[in-house]
Amino acid sequence: MSTYPSPRSRRAESAMRILAGIGFVSVLVVGMYFSVQAAKAVPDAFRQAAAAIISISSIFVPANETLTLKLSTSSVESGTPVTVAFAHTNKSTDGAYAFRYSCADGVTLTTASQEDPNVSIACNQPFAFEPFNDAIVLVPTAQTAAAIEIFISFTPSTAGTGSPTVVGSAALTISAPSRGGAPLTTVQPPVPEPKPLPTPAPKPPRTTIVVPQGRQSDPNGFTDLTARIIETGVIDANGAFIASSTPNRTSRVAVRFAVENIGTKTSKEFTFSAVLPTYPPFTYFSPSQVALGPGDRIEFTIGFDSFEQDNVGDFIVNVDPTSSVNERNKDNNIVKYTVTVTK
Question: CATH classification of 61-175 is 3.90.1170.50, yes or no?
Answer without folding.
Answer: no
